Amino acid sequence: MASSSLSSAAPQLGSPVSEKLTRENFLLWKAQVMPAIRGAQLIGILNGSSRAPPTKLEVEKADKTKEIIDNPEYEKWLSKHQQLLSYLLNSMTREVLDQVVMLESSAKVWSAIEGMYSALFSAWVTNLRMLSDPG
């Protein structure tokens, strides 16, 4: 069986963040969670570039018959994915959690959060520029 790019050790996401995600603190929150996610080598799961391996494998036995077995690499990937999802969800206030609770993957949660808060941040920057423009 080919080795996986995901190691078998559980990811070390570290302590919970000190500032949970609210509608006003996306950049502060992101600055806290990203080092933990990168350090645990889970960025691929977060951004969707590390896709789930197949759940089952077909293996050939010594008598040349084929058997379908559970893929151990899938179980490792799923464990890491669920730990990352838990870390993200536990780092949000209820107000934010209500907006993503139905999403079942960490990549979808991340995408939704970035979409919501990047747009708010861009609007804030635009308003700040308009207020500071002397013209």
Write the layout of secondary structure elements.
Layout: H1 26-39, H2 43-47, E1 56-60, E2 66-70, H3 72-90, H4 94-100, H5 106-132
Antiparallel strand pairs: 1-2
Helix pairs in contact: 3-5
Structure write-up:
By secondary structure, the chain is mainly α. The chain has one domain. Helices cover 53% and strands 7% of the residues. It has 5 helices and 2 strands; from the N terminus they run ααββααα. It has helices spanning 26-39, 43-47, 72-90, 94-100, 106-132; strands at 56-60, 66-70. Strands 1-2 form a two-stranded antiparallel ribbon. A hairpin with a 5-residue loop joins strand 1 and strand 2. Helix 3 (72-90) packs parallel to helix 5. It starts with 25 loop residues before the first helix and ends with a helix.
| Gyration radius, rounded | 20 Å
Q: What's the number of extended β-strand segments?
A: 2
CA-CA gap between termini: 66 Å
Q: Give the overall silhouette.
A: elongated
What is the makeup of the main sheet?
Answer: 2 strands, antiparallel
Strand order, largest beta sheet: 1-2
Mean pLDDT: 85
Domains (count)? 1
Which percent range describes the beta-strand content? 5-15%
Low-pLDDT residue intervals, each spanning 5 or more residues: 1-8
The residue fraction in helices comes out at 40-55%
How many helical elements? Answer: 5
Helices and strands, in N-to-C order?
A: HHEEHHH
